[in-house]
Design a protein that fits this description.
By secondary structure, the chain is α/β, with parallel strands linked by helices. It folds into two domains: 135 residues, Rossmann fold (3-Layer(aba) Sandwich), CATH 3.40.50; 212 residues, Glycogen Phosphorylase B (Rossmann fold), CATH 3.40.50.2000. The protein contains 13 helices and twelve strands. Strand 3, helix 5 and strand 4 form a beta-alpha-beta unit. Helix 7 runs parallel beside helix 8, helix 7 packs across helix 11 and helix 11 packs across helix 12.
């Protein structure tokens, strides 16, 4: 959501909307020159826009009459505590048709679809730094994925599908770049640690294929190196509100294999990308914030199909790259900051007009 918020700032700025940025995070610095220049800038705002989960917007609704909430969700239904909050904001923005249908049905109000814009690193690429990449041979095929280690991202399924696809190893590697909400190293119980899970799946599936798990903090330049070197992005998520790493890969023209469900279908299609079959099942994820519940549904990807798609992309990489790159041209136009910014500007002007304040 931090990436989405930054992209919103760039989009609004590209549409010549006068704005100021308030940083609600613990860190008070930004390495983004535009955002740094807008921090705490003095403006007389018509609206306040918050990019976050609705529960975090509660204190802000007490202070701002014209609060716009931009949010996402991953399953077929919303957390119940969110509903009253979302009914009390000035406007509700979501990035994809999956969210429009879910939010409107349950919140009972009109929802505005504002797609997420290209992240700054995609349209203004930084110089890559290959210093932290695992040792990779020049001809080695790199599958990669960037995610928080949690059930919704289904890392166990991803590893198993990869092992099924390449039981004898070969000139291939899967790189799992882990992140977390606090920007540090992931901490999970020992028996559920990524490396222990990896060893258990390898023992069960009996594959010699190489997997590299990266569990430390990388700079933007190091992330750029991984995304430039990667041959195929793969994610067997159970649900995504948008899925920025998937989106970035698709906009770069990198082949993508991912679950054919929820937010990513806003920018992916089966003609250009490899969409994994799935079935809807009850959510099973412990959640200290009580956001998930068993009455919700999310996707269970078909691992056999995922493995077959990995094999196919590996064996027919030139065709996969051609399909992905042909789609990336239109994606870059459709989700360019100025395009998304103009959609936001039109919505804001409409809201002002409805309130009799259009200038």
């Amino acid at each position: 959501m931090g990436t989405a918020a930054k992209a919103h700032i760039h989009a609004l700025h590209a549409a010549n909307i006068d704005l100021s940025v308030i940083n609600l995070a613990f860190s008070q610095e930004s390495d983004d020159p535009l955002i740094a220049s807008l921090l705490d800038k003095r403006v007389n705002p018509d609206f306040h826009l918050v990019d976050y989960m609705p529960i975090a917007a509660v204190p802000l609704t007490l202070y701002f009459d014209r609060l716009i909430l931009a949010s996402v969700w991953e399953t077929e239904s919303l957390p119940r505590p969110w509903l009253s909050i979302m009914r009390n904001v000035c406007d509700l923005w979501v990035p994809c048709e999956h969210n429009v249908s879910v939010f409107q049905e349950q919140v009972g109000r009109t929802v505005f679809k504002l797609p997420h814009a290209l992240a700054a690193k995609v349209y203004e690429p930084v110089r890559p730094d290959f210093s932290k990449l695992p040792l990779i041979g020049d001809s080695e095929f790199v599958f990669y994925s960037i995610f928080v280690w949690q059930p919704r991202k289904y890392p166990e399924g991803l590893i198993e599908a990869y092992f099924r696809a390449f039981p004898n190893g070969g000139n291939v590697v899967l790189i799992l770049k882990l992140t977390d909400f606090g920007g540090g190293v992931i901490r999970v119980p020992d028996e559920e640690s990524p490396h222990n899970v990896l060893c258990e799946i390898r023992r069960r599936v009996k594959s010699s294929a190489r997997v590299e798990i990266v569990n430390d903090v990388w700079s933007e330049q190091q992330m750029e190196a991984l995304e430039q070197r990667g041959n195929c992005y793969v994610s067997l998520h159970r649900g995504e509100g948008w899925g920025y790493p998937i989106f970035d890969a698709a906009c770069r023209g990198t082949p993508v294999i991912t679950t054919g469900y929820s937010g990513p279908l806003e920018y992916l299609d089966s003609a250009h990308h490899s969409l994994v079959k799935f079935k809807l099942v009850s959510v099973a994820q412990a959640d200290p914030m009580n956001s998930y519940s068993a009455e919700m549904k999310w996707a269970e990807p078909n691992l056999e199909h995922a493995a077959a798609l990995m094999e196919h992309v590996f064996d027919h990489h030139g065709d996969a790259v051609g399909r992905a790159r042909s789609a990336s041209l239109s994606l870059r136009k459709r989700f360019a900051p100025d395009t998304v910014g103009m959609l936001a500007r039109e919505r804001l002007e409409s809201l002002l007009s409805d309130s009799g304040r259009l200038s």
